[in-house]
Design a protein that fits this description.
mainly alpha; three-stranded antiparallel sheet
Length: 68
């Protein structure tokens, strides 16, 4: 059985990437960082696998995944 995709919140993304909040949102707009998912009316998060891929190789993320 496959493990379900984990959704992580901004605080975790900030800790894992070392980026500031404003840098993350700027990179999303540029297409060089994974876009967030709407998980409720007032909540959003990121797929943990997308963040792990970005952390492993930030410059290739755009080339490999485009604007997910």
């Amino acid at each position: 059985m496959q493990t379900p995709e984990r959704i992580i919140r901004l605080k975790t993304v900030l800790a894992r990437t070392g980026l500031s909040r404003s840098t993350i949102y700027r990179k999303i707009a540029e297409g060089t960082f994974p876009a967030q998912l709407r998980i409720s009316t007032n909540g959003a998060g990121w797929r943990e696998s997308d963040i792990n891929q970005w952390v492993a190789d930030p410059p290739r993320w755009r080339i490999t995944n485009g604007n997910n």
